[in-house]
UniProtKB/TrEMBL annotation:
Belongs to the acyl-CoA dehydrogenase family. Its cofactor is FAD. The keyword Flavoprotein applies. Residues 84-189 form the Acyl-CoA dehydrogenase/oxidase N-terminal domain. It catalyses: a medium-chain 2,3-saturated fatty acyl-CoA + oxidized [electron-transfer flavoprotein] + H(+) = a medium-chain (2E)-enoyl-CoA + reduced [electron-transfer flavoprotein]; a long-chain 2,3-saturated fatty acyl-CoA + oxidized [electron-transfer flavoprotein] + H(+) = a long-chain (2E)-enoyl-CoA + reduced [electron-transfer flavoprotein]. Pathway: Lipid metabolism; fatty acid beta-oxidation. It is an enzyme of class 1 (oxidoreductase). PANTHER family: ACYL-COENZYME A DEHYDROGENASE (PTHR48083:SF33), MEDIUM-CHAIN SPECIFIC ACYL-COA DEHYDROGENASE, MITOCHONDRIAL-RELATED (PTHR48083). GO terms for biological process: fatty acid beta-oxidation using acyl-CoA dehydrogenase. Its EC number is 1.3.8.7, 1.3.8.8. This is Acyl-coenzyme A dehydrogenase.
Length: 758
């Protein structure tokens, strides 16, 4: 007992007496922290400063405020936005023949180009005072996704001017003169923009762009002008072949110090008419046969005046921050919209196809092998729609959640790939035979484009999500780094001392929380709701605190090496990502009004998210470079082992059975794949067959019963089966006609296009 009292007194003195604490704890910790401090490049520092911390910050800190999540506004469309979807977008869909666009024209038809321009499809983000639509991020996403259900090429054509590019950069940073000059013309499609960032030597490492602009004086429009001599070589630039105005990112140099004392000003963005002397628009690329315009641009010693810099001369060297701020928003809208469209299409068509396609005398949707893949499609689509809504909610709240949008871009495009692969497996011959009726093939072919652009997925996962999130979202680390960088060491140590006490308390709380929740199965953890989803909030509290304590130990032990340990960094990023996706799922369920028929999807998705988060934690612990720390983490996080399992077979079967019929739950995750009169793309055809066969379901049961009882032979061709049933008065003439019509639609839906010659 006396030893315990002495120990308590010692700890109290050590932490409570400032002079003792400073000497024994703070100064050694400060020295160690500076030594292991991960070095930040200027571009990394700007990227961190440019983004905002949003919901991911709660998930990273070990104790999420779930009421904050529930308090975020439910994304909705304004009457104007809904009208645009109901009218202009629906009209555009009737003008799309994607097979003709991709295989014959290799371009959009002229009338569709003109309709997009005239109706403001390229002006969704431009303010109304300049003639734009000024729609929300959610509306922008919904419009792009709806178009993408019928044509990726058309969707990308609309998407790009409303993502990172001249329109967005001018809106946020342009001078008044630049806005007045360009935005009205961009709004009506008189000017078509492209933005040139990527080059042969700079892809994901956009900060290393080699394109150079040198400040100098040259003659421009008859007068000696202070400007920039530009040389660039860019590739993969969407809309470049048809663009009239080029946004260009380059490294700006001022060797003669004409603008000030700095010779290297940094990345800068300028706006250049493509008919300007020296601008070269090169040949087209062929991005996996998709027909959206994509190509090259270059220029050598092209002179432009300084006021062509977006934002004017005062924005020289500020281009990287501008790009990061705008890229984070675009990354959370555009590519996730394409991925979500893939989910809606595959769920709508594959549930329908699985119901109408028969093998061995029954719908293929009754086979468990098909159900396993179909359950993944349905659950992943629910997840995609949930993540789309939560991510655009953040953007519409005027935050720039760079980590969240990186999560959305990476995981949603990967989920888009997953749903397409599963759909192709189930629809098989229907999916692989291209033609006007094929609604999967082009999206399947195009998916790697989304995986690649706006930051390659491998690097987004291994470098960005945790690499930025660990520092940006941590409640203490970024402030500690700033303290370590202060020039006044006395002030730095004082500031570090204040932070250190809080950091120690934070880490202790998370360690105890992780351990206690692991021992009790999170039964005593808090939840903002009761009922069927309560357990998921409790388990997410446990995973969050586990991630927090593991992050602290990783930074402590690996320091600056952590960002080079990309596999561990990626796995820890996966934990954060799964928590974010799970949060989106629970928010979607709440926003839908806790619909009971959503629960099979929610249970499947949440079980999968928690399973993957726990697996990522377990794998990171198993590969932790310090074996002693690895053992400690395992004791804290999984003292009784990892019991988070993947969804059960029973859950998969229940989910699929609930979706192999028309229902509000099915409508909620297929509504982007809207129906319209005259749709010849195959989607309406398979849906019509599905509805017709479902309406006749009692007649099919009657026929099955007759076969089982021996009144009709068990193996007869479908049409002969109908005729025999009619002859034996098992069905009426009206029922016979209904079955004939349903089977006619079924055959049309499962058939594919053929050609005399290719």
């Amino acid at each position: 007992m006396s030893i315990l009292i002495l120990l308590i007194i010692a700890v109290a003195v050590l932490f409570g007496v400032r002079s003792v604490r400073m000497q024994v704890i703070t100064r050694p910790a400060f020295t160690f922290f500076k030594k292991v401090l991960p070095p930040l490049s200027s571009t990394e520092k700007e990227a961190m400063e440019a983004g905002d911390v949003w919901w991911e910050g709660e998930l990273f800190r070990g104790k999420p405020d779930w009421n904050k999540l529930h308090g975020y506004a439910k994304p909705t469309l304004t009457p104007e936005e809904q009208s645009f979807l109901d009218n202009q977008v629906q009209t555009a869909l009737t003008m799309i023949d994607d097979f003709d666009i991709v295989h014959n024209r290799k371009d959009l038809p002229p009338e569709l180009w003109e309709y997009f321009k005239k109706e403001g499809f390229f002006a969704l983000i431009i303010p109304k005072k300049y003639g734009g639509r000024e729609f929300s991020a959610y509306a922008n996403s919904t419009i792009v996704a709806t178009i993408a259900t019928r044509s990726v090429s058309a969707a990308v054509t609309v998407m790009v001017p409303n993502s990172l590019g001249p329109g967005e950069l001018l809106t946020h940073y342009g001078t008044q003169e630049q806005k007045d000059r360009w935005l009205p013309s961009l709004a009506v499609g008189k000017e078509l923009p492209c933005f040139a960032l990527t080059g042969p030597e700079a892809g994901s490492d956009a900060g290393a762009i080699p394109d150079i602009g040198v400040v100098c004086r040259q003659e421009f429009e008859g007068e000696e002008t202070l400007g920039i001599s530009l040389t660039w070589n860019k590739r993969y630039i969407t809309l470049a072949p048809v663009a009239t105005v080029l946004g260009l990112a380059f490294q700006m140099r001022d060797p003669d110090k004409l603008l000030g004392d700095k010779k290297n000003l940094g990345i800068t963005c300028a706006l250049i008419p493509t008919d300007h002397v020296g601008v070269e628009i090169g040949r087209r690329h062929n991005p996996l046969m998709m027909a959206f315009m994509n190509g090259t641009t270059s220029g050598k010693d092209v002179f432009i005046p300084l006021d062509w810099i977006i934002g004017g001369p005062q924005y020289a060297g500020k281009g990287w921050r501008m790009l990061v701020e705008c890229l984070s928003a675009g990354r959370g809208i555009s590519l996730p919209a394409l991925a979500t469209a893939s989910g809606h299409v595959t769920t709508k068509t594959t549930t329908a196809y699985s119901y109408v396609r028969q093998q061995f005398g029954m719908p293929i949707g009754n086979f468990e092998g098909v159900q396993e893949a179909l359950a993944r499609i349905i659950a992943n689509t629910y997840q995609l729609e949930a993540a789309r809504r939560l991510t655009t909610t953040g953007i519409d709240a005027n935050v720039k959640p760079s980590v969240v949008t990186a999560i959305a871009k990476y995981h949603m495009t990967e989920l888009g790939r997953d749903v397409l692969e599963d759909a192709m497996d189930i629809q098989s011959g229907k999916g692989i035979q291209l033609g006007p009726k094929n609604y999967l093939g082009h999206a399947f072919m195009a998916n790697p484009i989304s995986i690649t652009v706006e930051g390659a997925n491998i690097l987004t996962r291994s470098l960005m999500i945790f690499g930025q999130g660990a520092t940006r979202c941590h409640p203490y680390v970024l402030a500690e780094m700033e303290a370590a960088g202060m020039e006044d060491e006395t002030a730095a140590v004082d500031r570090f001392d204040q932070l250190l006490l809080g950091h120690i308390g934070y880490a202790t709380r998370n360690a105890l929380s992780a351990f206690a929740n692991a021992l009790t199965g999170s039964r005593f953890s808090s939840s903002p709701v009761s009922g069927p989803t309560q357990k998921y909030y409790r388990d997410m509290n446990r995973i969050s605190s586990s991630l927090a304590i593991m992050t602290d130990l990783s930074m402590l032990i690996m320091g600056g090496d952590l960002k080079r340990k990309e596999m561990i960094s990626a796995r820890m990023g996966d934990v954060l990502s799964q928590l974010y996706l799970a949060s989106a799922t629970l928010k979607f369920y709440e926003d839908n009004g806790r619909q009971h028929d959503d629960l099979p999807s929610v249970h499947y998705v949440m079980t999968e998210r928690l399973h993957l988060a726990a697996k990522a934690l377990e794998d990171a612990i198993r590969n932790f470079p310090s074996k002693i720390a690895g053992v400690l983490l395992k004791v804290l996080i999984f003292p009784l082992g990892n019991h988070f399992t993947a969804p059960s077979d029973k859950a998969a079967v229940e989910l699929v059975k609930a979706m192999l019929k028309p229902s509000p739950a099915r409508d909620r995750i297929t509504f982007l794949c809207s129906e319209f009169e005259g749709d010849t793309g195959g989607i309406a055809e398979v849906e019509d067959a599905f509805l017709a066969k479902y309406e006749a379901r009692d007649l099919y049961k009657k026929l099955k019963k007759a076969q089982r009882s021996g009144h009709i032979k068990s193996k007869l061709p479908m049409l002969e089966l109908f005729e025999v049933a009619l002859e034996k008065d098992i069905i009426t003439d009206a029922e016979y006609q209904q079955l004939l019509e349903a089977d006619k639609k079924r055959l049309a839906a499962i058939n594919v296009n053929d050609f005399e010659k290719l």
